[in-house]
From TrEMBL:
Enzyme Commission designation: 1.1.1.47
Top-level taxonomic group: Bacteria
SUPFAM superfamilies reported for this sequence: NAD(P)-binding Rossmann-fold domains (SSF51735)
NCBIfam families the UniProt entry points to: PRK07231.1 (NF005559)
Enzyme class: oxidoreductase
Gene Ontology molecular function, alphabetical: glucose 1-dehydrogenase [NAD(P)+] activity
Name assigned to this protein: Glucose 1-dehydrogenase
A UniProt-annotated Pfam family: adh_short_C2
Family: Belongs to the short-chain dehydrogenases/reductases (SDR) family.
Keywords annotated in UniProt: Oxidoreductase
């Protein structure tokens, strides 16, 4: 058991979680804290992010902080990284999880709709990854990044129409691979997870006929939970994955296999 704990321990690490105020980000942040890490929540929902950070600190007896940060603004991201490093003492790992979906038929997508999704889901991942990597390089530190992509980067969703989301997540997968190759010489590993349909605050509000369609099309015959993503993220952030970079780990209940 001691060896198992050591394999997946994040003890002594400081982990940034973007989009960590709720949903997948919040649940995964809790699990990361449970295996020993201190947590920094980046989120636009300032009060909710602070409440999440305070709750994690109390529950897991770790150090936390919340930073209101718009991941689409490089200068704000850089300031947030600097602020987090100053308050936490260091930064080690990043879970890039902020994202949105705006389901709409492609013929009806307005330019602002398209740009909003791409800016948050793809550009935001790059801007935070770049600022975080610059911090690591400047301080001669090794580190790891896990990005949240989606099975939507591999398949086309149905019945909802989400061309902007699918495109952004496909971009995250290939960005992950590109950064992995470019940064391996710097000791920075970059991987991503690609969740299938996960039951969260957002998906529970989707029309029931959509949820039924998703479940019926998934061999597991259910949606996943945020808790079922935590192990994948912890593995990819931990030293157990020291020879793994550029990986897209699909966690989808076999959805993409049929």
């Amino acid at each position: 058991m001691d060896m198992l704990k050591k394999l997946f321990s994040l003890e002594g690490k400081v982990v940034i979680v973007t989009g960590g105020a709720q949903g997948i980000g919040k649940i995964v942040a809790e699990h990361i804290a449970a295996v020993g890490a201190d947590i920094v929540i980046f989120d636009m929902q300032e009060e909710k992010a602070k409440a999440t950070a305070d709750s994690i600190a109390k529950e897991y007896n770790c150090k936390t902080m919340a930073v209101c940060a718009d991941v689409t603004k490089p200068e704000i991201v850089a300031q947030a990284i600097e602020k987090a490093a100053a308050e936490m003492g260091t930064l080690d790992l990043l879970f890039n999880n902020a994202g949105i979906a705006l389901p709409k038929a492609a013929l009806d997508v307005k330019p602002d709709d398209w740009l909003k999704v791409i800016n948050i889901n793809l550009n935001g991942v790059f801007f935070v990854s770049q600022a975080f990597a610059k911090y690591l390089v400047a301080h001669d530190k090794k580190g790891a990044i896990v990005n949240t992509a989606s099975m939507s980067g591999t398949i086309i969703n149905s019945p909802q129409k989400t061309a902007s989301y699918n495109t952004s997540k496909a971009g995250v997968v290939h960005l992950t691979k590109s950064l992995a190759v470019e940064w391996c010489s710097k000791g920075i590993r970059v991987n991503c997870i690609s969740p299938g349909y996960i039951f969260t605050e957002l998906t529970r509000n989707v029309p029931q006929e959509f949820q039924d369609s998703w479940i019926n099309s998934t061999p597991f015959k259910r949606m996943g939970t945020p808790e079922e993503l935590a192990g994948a993220v912890i593995y990819l952030l931990s030293d157990s994955a020291s020879y793994t970079s550029g990986c897209d780990l699909i966690v989808d209940g076999c959805f993409t296999l049929i």
